C-alpha cells in the first residue's frame, strides 16, 4: 500500500481510469515506460478509428469568413463608399479575380504584397485577395515618408505595392530609392484616373480586377500557422518592427474582436480605425464573419463621422482616444443627433473619464479595449458588469478606463514582475508588467530573432506596459515602462498626471514625459495643446494639478504646442522626451 501512495498522482489516476475503459482501447492509448513501472499516454493519432482528414480538419483562415459571407449574406451590402456599393457576393467575386490577377503578375505563395492606402474598398478587398493568392499582406502606414517606406519595402521584400492615387508621389519616391523595386498597382476612386506619365511601370487596380479569372482556385494555407500579414509597429519608439500574424491567430482574434464589440449578425461598421493598423484590429476580416457592412471613410473628420452615421445608420465604429477627443470637441454645427446609440471601441491610452462622459452625452457607448500590434490588436476589454450601472457617474467612468480582462482567444493575461516572473498582488497598487500568452499573440518579429527572444522571455509575451491588477482581476494600465517618471525615488504614472490635466476646461490634448533634473533625477514635463478660444499659462496648469495630486506628481514644466502623433493617434513620446532634454540643457 505504501508503494502505491508513493507513486506520482498521475500514475494513480491512470491506473484508476484503466478499470473504466475498454481493455483494447487503453492498451492502444497507454504504453509501458522503459522500466515497465509506469504507464505513459501515447498520441491520440495512433488510436484505431481516429483519423485527421479533410472531413474533420481544415486549417483555420479568415478566407473562410468571406466564402461563407458570399453564401449566407450574398445580397447583404458588404461595402459602402460614397455612391459605391457592393454585396458580399460581389466582394467575394472581386477578391477571387484579384487573387487570380496577382498570380498572373508573378506573385507566388509566401511573397509579400504591400499596401499604402486609406480606408477605401480596395483595402478591404486586399485583406482577402492577397492571402487567397497564397501571399502575405503588409499594410503600410499612410503617414510614412518615402525614406521610411523604402526601408520597410526593403525589409519586407515586398514584390508588389498597391498604392492609393493620393499617396502616389511618396510611393514613387520610395521606389526610386530601391535597387529591386516592387511592381506598382495604383488604386483610384471612380472618376479619378491615375496619371499616365509615370516614370515607372504601373498597373491599374480596377483593370487587374476586371482581368482576373472568376473561377480561380483559391490558395488556402496548408498550415494555419503560415503567415497572413506583416504589421509594422507604429513608430512610437522610432524603430518599427515587422510583426507577423498567422492565419490561425487572425481567425481567432477576428472572432474575439467581433464578440468584444457586441456585433450581432449584420452590423454596420464605420471605418475610422485605419485598416493598416493591426489589420483594422482584425475587423477587416471579422466583419465578413457576421455579414457586416463596411462603411469606408477616406479621412477621419468629425463632420463626416456624424453625417455618415446618420446617413447609413451606423451601429459600430472604433477609434483611438484622440478620435474621441476630436468628436467631443467638434463644433456644434458639425454634430447631428444620432439615429441610435452607436457602440464605439477605443484603445491605446486610457481615455479620460471626462471624455467618456461627453461621448455618452452625444449618443455613443464607449467600450475600452487594450492590446498591442503584437497581440493582433485587442487582447483585453473592460467587460462591463451589470452591478456597476448603479454606481455614481464618476465611479462608473473611472471603471471604464480600465483595460479589463482577456478575451476568449487568449490563454492568459497577467501582471508580473519581469525579473522574477511572479504575479503581482491583486490589490490595485502593486505594479508589474502586462504579459500575454495564447494563440492570438504574434508569431514573432520578421528577421529579428533577438527581439523575438526578448519579447518571449519566460514563455510569455512582454508588453512593456506597467499596470496593476484589482481584486476583481481587472487590469489597469499605469504607464509604459519607458514612460514612467522616477522623481526623488518615487514612481510617477504619466497616465495619472495626464488624466488630471485633461480635466482642465482649457485643455484639448496633453502628454507628460520625464525631464532630467539635477536634484530630483526626473520631474514631470507636460506638453499641452489648448482648445480654440481658451487661454491659460503654465502656472495655472501646475496649480491645477497640485490641487488634485500629490505635489511631487504635479508637472514642474509646461510647454504649449501641437503633440506629435502617429496616424493611429499615439503620441510619439520619444520625440517629446528629446525636447524635454533640450529644455534641461538650456535652463
UniProtKB/TrEMBL annotation:
One of its GO terms (biological process) is phenylpropanoid metabolic process. Belongs to the ATP-dependent AMP-binding enzyme family. InterPro entries: AMP-bd_C, AMP-bd_C_sf, AMP-binding_CS, AMP-dep_synth/lig_dom, ANL_N_sf. This is AMP-binding, conserved site-containing protein. The keyword Ribonucleoprotein does not apply. Residues 496-570 form the AMP-binding enzyme C-terminal domain. Keywords: Ligase, Phenylpropanoid metabolism. GO terms for molecular function: (E)-caffeate-CoA ligase activity. Pfam families: AMP-binding, AMP-binding_C. PANTHER family: ACYL-ACTIVATING ENZYME, ISOVALERATE--COA LIGASE AAE2. Residues 66-446 form the AMP-dependent synthetase/ligase domain. Pathway: Phytoalexin biosynthesis; 3,4',5-trihydroxystilbene biosynthesis; 3,4',5-trihydroxystilbene from trans-4-coumarate: step 1/2.
Amino acid at each position: 500500500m505504501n508503494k502505491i501512495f508513493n507513486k506520482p498522482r498521475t500514475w494513480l489516476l491512470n491506473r484508476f481510469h484503466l478499470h473504466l475503459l475498454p481493455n483494447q482501447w487503453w492498451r492502444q492509448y497507454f504504453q509501458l515506460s522503459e522500466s515497465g513501472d509506469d504507464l505513459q499516454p501515447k498520441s491520440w493519432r495512433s488510436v484505431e478509428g481516429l483519423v485527421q482528414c479533410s472531413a474533420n480538419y481544415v486549417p483555420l483562415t479568415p478566407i473562410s469568413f468571406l466564402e461563407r459571407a458570399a453564401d449566407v449574406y450574398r445580397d447583404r451590402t458588404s461595402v459602402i463608399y460614397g455612391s459605391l456599393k457592393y454585396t458580399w457576393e460581389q466582394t467575394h467575386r472581386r477578391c477571387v479575380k484579384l487573387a487570380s490577377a496577382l498570380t498572373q503578375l508573378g506573385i507566388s505563395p509566401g511573397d509579400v504584397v504591400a499596401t499604402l492606402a486609406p480606408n477605401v474598398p480596395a483595402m478591404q478587398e486586399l485583406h482577402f485577395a492577397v492571402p487567397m493568392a497564397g501571399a502575405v499582406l503588409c499594410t503600410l502606414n499612410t503617414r510614412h515618408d518615402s525614406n521610411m517606406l523604402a526601408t520597410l519595402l526593403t525589409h519586407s521584400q515586398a514584390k508588389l505595392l498597391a498604392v492609393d492615387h493620393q499617396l502616389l508621389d511618396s510611393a514613387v519616391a520610395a521606389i526610386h530609392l530601391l535597387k529591386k523595386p516592387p511592381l506598382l498597382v495604383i488604386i483610384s476612386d471612380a472618376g479619378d484616373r491615375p496619371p499616365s506619365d509615370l516614370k515607372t511601370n504601373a498597373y491599374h487596380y480596377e483593370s487587374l480586377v476586371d482581368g482576373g479569372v472568376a473561377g480561380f482556385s483559391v490558395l488556402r494555407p496548408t498550415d494555419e500557422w503560415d503567415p497572413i500579414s506583416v504589421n509594422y509597429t507604429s513608430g512610437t519608439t522610432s524603430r518599427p518592427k515587422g510583426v507577423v500574424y498567422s492565419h490561425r491567430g487572425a481567425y481567432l482574434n477576428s472572432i474575439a474582436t467581433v464578440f468584444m464589440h457586441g456585433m450581432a449578425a449584420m452590423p454596420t461598421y464605420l471605418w475610422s480605425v485605419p485598416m493598416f493598423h493591426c489589420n483594422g484590429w482584425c475587423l477587416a476580416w471579422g466583419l465578413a464573419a457576421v455579414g457586416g457592412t463596411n462603411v469606408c471613410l477616406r479621412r477621419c473628420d468629425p463632420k463626416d463621422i456624424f453625417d455618415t452615421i446618420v446617413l447609413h445608420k451606423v451601429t459600430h465604429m472604433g477609434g483611438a482616444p484622440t478620435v474621441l477627443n476630436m468628436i467631443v470637441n467638434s463644433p456644434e454645427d458639425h454634430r447631428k443627433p444620432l439615429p441610435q446609440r452607436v457602440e464605439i471601441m477605443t484603445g491605446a491610452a486610457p481615455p479620460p473619464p471626462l471624455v467618456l462622459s461627453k461621448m455618452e452625452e452625444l449618443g455613443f457607448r464607449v467600450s475600452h479595449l487594450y492590446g498591442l500590434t503584437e497581440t493582433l490588436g485587442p487582447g483585453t476589454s473592460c467587460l462591463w458588469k451589470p452591478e456597476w450601472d448603479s454606481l455614481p457617474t464618476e465611479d462608473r467612468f473611472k471603471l471604464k478606463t480600465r483595460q479589463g480582462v482577456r478575451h476568449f482567444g487568449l490563454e492568459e493575461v497577467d501582471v508580473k514582475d519581469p525579473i522574477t516572473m511572479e504575479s503581482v498582488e491583486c490589490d490595485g497598487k502593486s505594479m508589474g508588467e502586462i504579459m500575454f500568452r495564447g494563440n492570438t499573440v504574434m508569431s514573432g518579429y520578421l528577421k529579428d530573432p533577438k527581439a523575438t527572444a526578448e519579447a518571449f522571455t519566460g514563455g510569455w509575451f512582454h508588453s512593456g506596459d506597467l499596470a496593476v491588477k484589482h481584486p476583481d482581476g481587472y487590469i489597469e494600465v499605469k504607464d509604459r515602462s519607458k514612460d514612467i517618471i522616477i522623481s526623488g525615488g518615487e514612481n510617477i504614472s504619466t497616465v495619472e498626471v495626464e488624466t488630471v490635466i485633461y480635466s482642465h476646461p482649457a485643455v484639448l490634448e496633453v502628454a507628460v514625459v520625464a525631464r532630467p533634473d539635477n536634484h530630483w533625477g526626473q520631474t514631470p514635463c507636460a506638453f499641452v495643446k489648448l482648445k480654440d478660444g481658451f487661454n491659460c499659462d503654465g502656472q495655472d496648469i501646475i496649480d491645477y494639478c497640485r490641487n488634485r495630486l500629490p505635489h511631487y506628481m504635479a508637472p514642474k514644466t509646461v510647454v504649449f504646442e501641437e503633440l506629435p502623433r502617429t496616424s493611429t493617434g499615439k503620441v510619439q513620446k520619444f520625440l517629446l522626451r528629446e525636447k524635454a532634454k533640450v529644455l534641461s540643457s538650456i535652463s
